[in-house]
Design goal:
The complex is a heterodimer of chains A (453) and B (236). Chain A is of the alpha+beta class and 453 residues long. Chain A is built from 15 helices and eleven strands. Chain B is α/β, with parallel strands linked by helices. The interface between A and B is medium-sized, with 24 and 29 residues.
Chain lengths: 453, 236
Amino acid sequence: MRLADHIQLSFSNLWKSKLRTFLTTFGVTIGIGALVSLISFGRGMQKNVTESFKALELFNSITVLPGGFMSERERHDPDERRPTNPPSGQEQTILDEKAEEKIAALKGVDMIFPEIRIPALVKFNGKEEFRLIQVIPAKVAASKLVKFRAGKAYSSDDENSLIISASLLRQFNIRDAQPVPGKTIVISSIAFNFFALNPGDLTAALRGEKLPFALENYELTIAGVAENLAFGGPTPIQSDIFIPPGTARKMKRLPFSSIWDLFRAQEGRLGYSALNVRLSSPRYVEPVKKEISAMGFETFALADQFQDIQRGFLVLDMILLAVGMIAIVVASLGIINTMVMSILERYNEIGIMKAVGASDGDIKTIFFFESSAIGLLGGFFGLALGGVTSGVINRIVNYFLAKQGVPFINYFSFPFWVCAGAVVFSVAVSLVSGIYPAWRAARVDPVEALRHD
Amino acid sequence: MENIRGRSRPIKVDKLTKIYASGKIRVTALKEVSLEFEEGLFAAVTGASGSGKSTLLNLLGGLDTPTSGTIEVKGRKISEMGKYELALYRRYGAGMIFQSFNLISSRTALENVELPLVFSGVPKKERRERAEEMLNKVGLSTRLTHRPFELSGGEQQRVAIARALVNRPQVLLADEPTGNLDSRTSREIVELLAGLNRSQGLTVIMVSHEEALAAEFAQKTIRLRDGRVLAEEMAG
């Protein structure tokens, strides 16, 4: 039998039972549509995160943490607590300017800046918001790590200006970022005020009342409005307000921003809570990490974390695939049912075909072609359904997230292999579903079938 | 198919037995039947219902396999053929027609006649030409695009004959071809078969319960009773 005849015969046979073919194909369409949507969602998430990592150059970032007592990692995982003694030959492991200079001198280090966050009240447009202000040098603010919706980065480390995020602006009821650069904003930092301490009433201070703190107000100009990060991940540049280091130094503020700073201060090892290191290439990650570890500091590279994230995505893909497969199994049962019904209806026809010379193989092939035709149609329509459904969901999600200031993102990704794979998979599932009906049709006894009316 | 289509030899049936078993019940449809059909013969197999006529024809047509005994067609033992070889034999070696015509109702006369050629892998254009030619031969040149339900019983049987002969077999096996037809149409159909036998040297083996009609046209009549050959008679 010729291929063209097989194709023509299978479609004409399916056309004879239009409603049943439509319903069965619709079942496959839903199954493939669900599978395509779910896989493209998993792919979309992975693509967005990977692209964000690449765009923010997170693969060539290292975070350096103080060594010894309660490093950053140990705070989260007590089982990983290491001995508090620094490596032999090291006097102390304070993450200070000296350490910053030493690390900056390492081969491959492109940029280094300390992790400084200042708790402050931000007053703008008649409203107040509490935020941790991040101190980042002008060079970092001007790099592609910060994307601007309006304005630009401050030009020097001493400029009396700041960068505000679009999402914080929304908190101040400002949706249009364009006119904001150039406006003045008030930052109130918290500083010690020993004059406020009444030595005669120390018991009140112990009760947490009348503490020797005061708010210090600073007027700064908004230089730029930063874009929100939809998939920022654990990026070192993550705050609603950024100020340059020179300006930060001029501010009166507490020398600590967390309880961990207090613990280190108690030991006389305050220093920075962390140093953010940018490398000129991801290939320097391992050697630089090694050298920094030798200095007695803890290191944390996002490149290492990314492998865990990828493993997480693999698990997510598997879960989504398993959910999608339920629909496919149901569709597959629909195909089997349709094909078995078709055998019963065409029992006499199968006998006639055998009587005029069709072999068992010919009969099997006819049924395989019919089931794969259902799969092919279901695959194409399913792909279209998956595309339309994903598009609709994407628009709905983006509509709601846009209200929270999150920029438009494609949560679904349709790489070519997903599209081609969906159709091939649909045909493959249909072929597998057609095995039993085809085998049963081939086993029809022609003598009995010819008597059947 | 060289030896099926090649030099013709008679059809030989030797000690053919067919037993149908259903659970513990065993029914002997044919018991040690031995027959011989010369090439170009118009033979009629007659007998009462249940005598084994249709069983014999199904075995000769390769639709069924014997319990024991041999069937030799043109030098090849079809009783020893596997499933695929039997399919090829049905495709090229023997054409069959039936009492209930067995046409595919959703297909036109032309498409029904084309069907054996589809399984032979004949290109569409050639298929159409050969099917048209066959339908012309059986007198249905004006009924090509009609579906079976638009044709009379006689016309349907003619379509079935055209389909049985389109792959140019050496033998035509007719199982009660007049069973569903009135007497006038029955005669026309048997005359058509006899004409094809005469003009093309086609071997025709016809099973019929109409002994008078069979005796009028058949050169050889075989009477079966209870699965055994009761009599073999040559005409004239």
